[in-house]
Write a structure and sequence with these properties.
InterPro entries: At5g01610-like, DUF538. The protein is mainly β and 122 residues long. Helices cover 6% and strands 48% of the residues. The chain has one domain.
Length: 122
């Protein structure tokens, strides 16, 4: 069953399954500025990039794009990198890490990614 936060991202033309399969405790979005906060039941590690979701995720959401993202990381080249943005274009999702962009087919998000385990978000 999808939470209202999962459904809300669809209103911005993004896949509802960008959020992992975990409890969403709260979600707030300012419709004027697009600034949002999502509070998850805990930190979550998944096997698809992005790899780690902190318990609190924030950013700025507009149609087809999330900017100023905080609370999601990916491991690459033996280092953890913060994902700073996401955007949707046709059949692909683009994850932004600083000046680098990685493209993934949106079909990777047909199902909500399950949490592999709970861990600290430090």
């Amino acid at each position: 069953m999808l939470s209202w936060a999962h459904v809300e991202v669809v209103n911005y033309d993004l896949p509802s399954n960008l959020l992992p399969d975990t409890t969403v405790l709260g979600y707030a979005v300012n419709r004027t500025t697009g600034k949002f906060t999502v509070k998850l039941g805990g930190a979550c590690k998944i096997t698809l990039p992005p790899d780690n979701y902190f318990a609190t995720i924030s950013g700025k959401i507009v149609q087809g794009k999330i900017a100023e993202l905080d609370g999601i990381r990916v491991r690459a080249f033996f280092k953890w990198w913060s994902i700073t943005g996401m955007r949707s274009s046709d059949d692909d999702i683009f994850f932004e890490v600083s000046m680098v962009t990685a493209k993934y087919p949106s079909k990777n998000f047909n199902d909500r990614p399950p949490c592999d385990g709970q861990h600290s978000s430090s």
